[in-house]
Amino acid sequence: MSIERVPIIIRINTSEIEEQMCNKFADLWALKYKTIKGKPTTFISSNPFKHRPWQSAILRDTHPNKVIEKSRQLGMSEVGLSEVLHFLTTKENVKAMYIFPRNQQMVDFSKSRIKPVLQTPYFLDKVDKTMDSVTAKKILNNWLFMRSGWEGATGEGVDTDFLAIDEYDRMKDGVELSFQEGLSASKYGYMRRWSTPSIPGRGVNGAISKSDQMRYIWTCEHCGTKQFLTFDDNLIQVNPNGVNSATQEIADGTFIIGCKKCKKPINRMGIGEWVPMYPSIHEVRGYHISQLDAAWISADSIMRRRFSYSSKQLFHNYVIGEPFASEGIKITEADIKASIRLGREQVARTSAYTAIVAGIDWGDISYMCILGVKSNGVVDLLNLHSIQDDSKIPLKAVTYFCAILRSYQPNIVVADAGYGADKNSYGYTQFPAAWYSCYWTTSKDAHSKTRFIDQWNESSREVTVDKTLSIQRVLHSIKGHLIGLFPWCEKIAMFTQHLKNTVIMDEESDGLVYSRATRVGPDHYCCALAYGLIGVNKLTNYNINVNNSTSVEFI
Ligand SMILES: [Zn+2]
User: What does pLDDT average to over the chain?
Assistant: First the structure.
């Protein structure tokens, strides 16, 4: 009896293993299937323009909550898109929501970036062509929805497994909050936010400060020092005569990206590694990456743009990927303490003041500033009040404030129109000669009428004011110690905090740089004071001169 020898053949199906790897790792999937403007994705290349080694780990990372603070031009929108498309082609019965700042950006991205990818052979049998619009795509049994965030994308009642937010700092504050319930019901619950930053503590910078803060670490090939790249440490001038101080022209090769220790060039065609600065934080995964890390962007080009940008803030945001705040009109505790000139709070009108003005910011908690104007034009803050709303007592806040105001006999009350229609109706009945509602505008047009002149409408009892200019007026007045304050107490401490939370930041729209008032925390007393100063301006007919904060001119 012979034993038949049967050869044992183990078939290794390499394409199947590759497929499994691609399903698991989004970066491998992108290399194989995802095109960028018709060309394949690359992460590591001898071509500096295609060498983006830091992208692949970000894309592979399946942490549920990722935040990326970045410069412009690093291809992170494509990374975001790759991850969403990988998710939608490798999972079942899932929904992804992709949010852009403006409708036009959403439409452009959908048409010029997403559509061409979905027309490649890999997607042909996966995309449902009968369910294909600019704002919705059906891929296998999954959905991709696109929305714009500024007009108020809301996620109430929306089931989402994957929320992607592009240019997070250009959205309304907290755009993601309404999606959180829907996300938490998902077994994935992925949230991805990425943006160039704006000012410290706001938007992507606020989010990344609560993360593990991954930094891309380069190892110097000359001295072995490990470091992440910063503008101050690593942008090094090697040609001392390379900058023409008159024209600010930079000769080629004047600057290098160099090691912070030995000052020799960092080889950005190499590969670094991501290292968390706060490894004990697990809730949020943060990445910071900038043009300093991009092999195809020279140090000279970075410095040239430093000179050419009209806004220092926007240079730091767009090129270095870092938040930036100009120190000029940031309010400090010292500013407040230097302004304390009253012995105590004033609880009623006195003969020292020729006019009384109140400013009110409505909200769940409403805030009121009461200002006294003397005959010589001096303005004092007489008192501050706040009150929590109560749904059982509809007009609680306005009746409370009106009761307080009676003892002051205010000449003008300027109240927030945005949140307080019914409250202001009641205010008109109580102080018909004094009460106005105020509408904010934010003008990008430097020549706009409302930008410099408050527009009063006496028949409708309304005033329309440029918000940025009005907030600047507040900050300059406090910074110039133009408003007398009562002694330090809990109220003044909160008032100070609200002023500190108010920041003027630069933004860009259609190539124009303009300023905008924003906040990095509660700013209600600052708004209330802005409303109050609008009233003071009406009485005095002269703006407090914001260009020269040491002088106040009154008729
Ligand atoms: Zn070195």
Answer: 90
Query: Residue 326 has what pLDDT?
Result: 73
| 256 CA distance to ligand 1 middle (Å) | 13
CA 182 to chain centre: 23
* Cβ atoms of residues 390 and 374 within 8 Å: no
Q: What is the pLDDT of residues 238-256, one digit of tens each?
A: 999 999 988 889 999 999 9
Distance from Cα 233 to the centre of ligand 1, integer Å:
12
pLDDT at 548 over 80: no
Residues in the chain: 555
d(CA 268, ligand 1 centre) in Å: 13
Distance 298 CA to ligand 1 centre (A): 18
CA distance 29 to 61: 13
pLDDT tens digit sequence for 74-98 = 999 999 999 999 999 999 999 999 9
CA of 495 to the centre of ligand 1 (A): 48
Residue 553: is its pLDDT beyond 50? Answer: no
CATH number (domain holding residue 160)? 3.40.50.300
Burial of 4 (0-12, 13-18, 19+ CB in 10 A): exposed
Task: State the distance from the centre of ligand 1 to the C-alpha of 267, rounded, in angstroms.
Answer: 10
Q: How far is the CA of 355 from the centre of ligand 1 (A)?
A: 67
Does some domain include residue 292? yes
Distance of CA 416 to the CA centre of its chain: 24
Residue 536 maps to a domain = yes
Residues 6+ apart with CB under 8 A from 254: 237, 238, 239, 242, 243, 300, 303
- 176 Cα to the center of ligand 1, angstroms: 42
Residue 222 C-alpha to ligand 1 middle, in angstroms? 5
Write out pLDDT tens, residues 40-63. 999 999 999 999 999 999 999 999
- How many angstroms is it from 220 CA to the middle of ligand 1? 5
Check whether residue 343 and residue 461 sit in a common domain.
yes
Could you tell me which residues are beta bridge partners of residue 366?
387
Q: How many domains does the chain have?
A: 2
DSSP 250: B
pLDDT of residue 157: 67
Cα–ligand 1 centroid distance for 224 (angstroms): 6
397, 535: one domain? yes
Which residue segment(s) compose the domain that 87 sits in?
Answer: 15-217+274-298
pLDDT value for 14: 80
Q: What is the mean pLDDT of residues 3-19?
A: 74
Note if the pTM is more than 0.90: no
